[in-house]
Amino acid sequence: MAKPTTPRPSRAKAKAQSPASADHNRPRPETPSDYKATKEELLEFYRQMVLIRRFEEKAGQLYGLGLIGGFCHLYIGQEAVAVGIQSALQPGKDSVITGYRDHGHMLAYGIDPNVIMAELTGREAGISRGKGGSMHMFSVEHKFFGGHGIVGAQVSLGAGLGFAHKYNGDGGVCVAYFGDGAANQGQVYESFNMAELWKLPIIFVIENNQYAMGTSVNRSSAEDQLYRRGESFRIPGIQVNGMDVLAVRGATEEALKWVQGGNGPILLEMKTYRYRGHSMSDPAKYRSREEVQAMRDKSDPIEGVKKYLADAGVSEDELKKIDQDIRKVVSEAADFAETSPEPDMAELYTDVLVEQY
Amino acid sequence: MGIEIKMPALSPTMEEGTLAKWLVKEGDEVRSGDILAEIETDKATMEFEAVDEGKIGAIVIPEGTEGVKVGTVIATMAGEGGDRVTAAPKAEESAPPAKPEAAPEAPKKAESGTSKLASEAKASVADPDLPEGTEYVKTTVREALRDAMAEEMRRDERVFVMGEEVAEYQGAYKVTQGLLEEFGDRRVIDTPITEYGFAGVGTGAAMGGLRPVIEFMTFNFAMQAIDHIINSAAKTNYMSGGQMRCPIVFRGPNGAASRVAAQHSQNYGPWYASVPGLIVIAPYDAADAKGLLKAAIRSEDPVVFLENELVYGRSFDVPKVDDYVLPIGKARIMREGKDVTLVSYSIGVGVALEAAEQLAGESIEAEVIDLRTLRPLDTATVLDSLKKTNRLVVVEEGWPVCSIASEIAAVVMEKGFDDLDAPVLRVTNEDVPLPYAANLEKAALIDAARVVTAVKKVCYR
C-alpha cells in the first residue's frame, strides 16, 4: 500500500447508497486528498516514524530483560497515524488524548524520549515520576492529556477537553484517539451524542489496528466499517489509509477544516495494523505469521515514506544518517532509563492530593 | 352529598405547601380534569386537578395561605355520587422522572421511615470562628447550596454547572434554581441522561483547566459514572506525578430518600471515602452545605459532595458574612457533652442530636460530632472527644458493613483504645437493600430510639 491513496474498501462504497445517506442534503466534509509534503516535511515524517519504531523495539527489548514491568503496548506498525495527525496540529493550542498505547504518540509530539523511557522503567526521572508507567503518561505542557488505561475513557475525557476549548473560545481542537476495541464501549456513543449536540471541536480518531487484544473487528463489531459509527449522531466519518502518513495528514487537514468551521465533531477511521502483540505478554495465536508478514512487506508506513523520499531525490545515505542518529537517541534513552535512580520512598505519599487539608 | 377536597401530597417528601392560587370559585361547575388550584411545594409549583364532577361548594382555605398541611380540607364540593377520592395532582413540574409520584391523601397515610430521619434538630454550639454578633439568615439547605454555586460562579469564570435538568427545569430537586437565568446556557448546561458520558466530559473539562460542578440527579445514578470519578478524576494527579490536576465537584443527593426503595436509596459515603485522591464531603445543615460547597469548588482536588434530599427543604441559620468558606477536613462539635460521644454525618447528625436531647432528659450528656468531611477524616476531633467521654457510638444512615462507622471504630481501636470504657457501638441501617413498604422501610432505617438504646448500653445504664 505504498501508493498514496485514501482507499475506501469496496464494501463501504457499495453501502454509500444505503439509507444512511438519506439526509444527503446535510453538508459533509470533502473527500480528503493526500497531503503534498515538501522534502523537509517528508524527512521529518521519516525521522519521527523511525524514532517511534526504534524506541518501541528498544522498549520491547527492555521488557524482555525485566527492566520494564506490567503491561507494555507497542506502537510498531501504527506510526503513520500519530505522526501524520500530529504534524497538522498546532502545538500549544490543540489538545490530544489517547489510551494506553501511548508511547508513540508522545514521541510524535516532541516529548523527550529519555523521560518516556525512564517512566517505562519506573524511575524518578520518568515523566510521571515513575508513578504512572507505560499506560499513564501525561504532558500538560504539550497539551498531551494521557495516557489512559481504561478502554474508552479517553473518549469522554476528550469530549471534555473539546468542551473546554469551546468554553474558553481558544480556537483549539481536541484529538481523541481510541482503538477498534474501544469503539464498542458505550461511553463512546454517549460522548458522540454530546459532542455533536453541543458542536464540540473534537476529532475522534479510531486507530483500527484490526484486533481488540485478540478479537478481530469482524468478531466484535456488528458494523465493522467503523467510520460509519458516528452516522446516527450525524457525525460524518472518513475512512483513511492509516499506513500512509500523507493520507493521514491529508484527512486530518480536512477534519480540522470541518471542526474549525464550527461544524462539530468528525470521525476518522485510520485503518492500520500492529505488528506486535496487543501487549508484550500476547502470544498472538489469533492471527497467522503470514498475515503479519504480508502487512510488513506491502504496507509498512516507513517503507512507504522511503519511496516518497526517493521520489523527492533523497539519497539512501541521507536516510542512513538519520537512522544512525536515531539509534543513538534511543540507546541514550535506554541508558538514561536504566541508570536513573528509582523514586525516593517519600514519593509514595506525594501527589495523592494537591492541597493540604 | 358533599365531597371534601384535601391538600394533596405532590412529592414523596412533601408535608405542607402553599395554596398559591384558586382557579375555580364557589359555585363553579367542574369536570374531572379541570384544574382547581395551583399549589407550591418547596420543589415546584404544581397544578391540582379535579377527579370528580360537581359544583364547588365552599373554598375553605383561601389562596395565598402558606403552610397548608397535607390532608387538610381546602374546599368542599357537591358531587353526584359519594366518591371517596376527590382530586389528583397533575404534575407541571414533577419530581424526577425515575421517582414515583406520591398518591393523593389515602385514608391511612403510611408513615415512611424517613419521616423520622429528617430531624428538626440543630447544632447548639456556634462556630467559634465567627465573630460574636454575627447575623444569621434562615436558609434552606437547598438555597444554601444554590447560593454557594452562584457565588462561586460570580467569582470565577471557569466554574460551570452541568447535569440532568439543572438548567431549564431548574434542577430535579430545584437546587440549581435561578442559575440558568443569571449565568446563561454557556455555564448552566443540561445534559442528556448519560451519567458515564457527562461525568467523563466534566472530568476532561477539569483536566483542560475548567472548574466543573457536575450534578447527579442522585448518587445512585453516579454508579454508572463511578469509573470516571475514581479512575479518571481521583487517580490522575498521582499517576501523572503531580502534573495533571482535576479540580471538579461531583454533587447530588445521597442516601435514603422517602419510599423510593432499594435502587434509589443508598449511602455512597463509605464507597468514595475509601478512595485515595478524592475529597468526600457530606454536610448536615445549611451553613455547612454552603461553606463546604464553596470550599469544594475552590479546591484543586476532585471532590465528591454528598447531599441529602430529605434535608434539602429544612431551614437552618446561615451566617450572614461575605464569602462564607469552611475548611475541608474539619469535624464540628454540634453539641457538647461529657458522658458519651456520638459521631455522625449528613442526615445522621439530626438523629444523633435528637437522641442527645432525649438522653439529656435521663441525665446522660452526649457530645455530638458532625464529621462533615469523610475523606480526609478529622480523627483528632473524634479522639479528643473520646478522651473526655470514654464512650463512643457512631450513628450512620447507611449499611453497617465496611462503613464509616467501621472506620471510626478501627481508628478508635488503634489510637484511642486506652480511652475506652466500653466497646464502640455502631447504629446503622439494617444490612438489607432498602424496602419499599412503609413499615419495613421504617424498620430498616436508623432512628433516635436506637441511638438511645446503644448509648445506654455503652454507659451500662
UniProtKB/TrEMBL annotation, chain A:
Reaction equations catalysed: N(6)-[(R)-lipoyl]-L-lysyl-[protein] + pyruvate + H(+) = N(6)-[(R)-S(8)-acetyldihydrolipoyl]-L-lysyl-[protein] + CO2
Basic and acidic residues: bias regions: 23-36
Annotated segments matching region Disordered: 1-36
Pfam short name (any one): E1_dh
The organism of origin for this protein: Sphingobium agri
Record bears the keyword Oxidoreductase: yes
Function: The pyruvate dehydrogenase complex catalyzes the overall conversion of pyruvate to acetyl-CoA and CO(2). It contains multiple copies of three enzymatic components: pyruvate dehydrogenase (E1), dihydrolipoamide acetyltransferase (E2) and lipoamide dehydrogenase (E3).
Top EC category: oxidoreductase
CDD domains linked: TPP_E1_PDC_ADC_BCADC (cd02000)
Lineage: Bacteria, Pseudomonadati, Pseudomonadota, Alphaproteobacteria, Sphingomonadales
Transmembrane segments: none
Database matches in PANTHER family: PYRUVATE DEHYDROGENASE E1 COMPONENT SUBUNIT ALPHA, PYRUVATE DEHYDROGENASE E1 COMPONENT, ALPHA SUBUNIT BACTERIAL AND ORGANELLAR
Subunit structure: Heterodimer of an alpha and a beta chain.
EC numbers for this chain: 1.2.4.1
Domain of life: Bacteria
Gene that this sequence comes from: pdhA
Protein name, UniProt field: Pyruvate dehydrogenase E1 component subunit alpha
Entry keyword set: Oxidoreductase, Pyruvate, Thiamine pyrophosphate
Domain Dehydrogenase E1 component intervals: 47-344
Known cofactor(s): thiamine diphosphate
UniProt keyword RNA-binding, yes or no: no
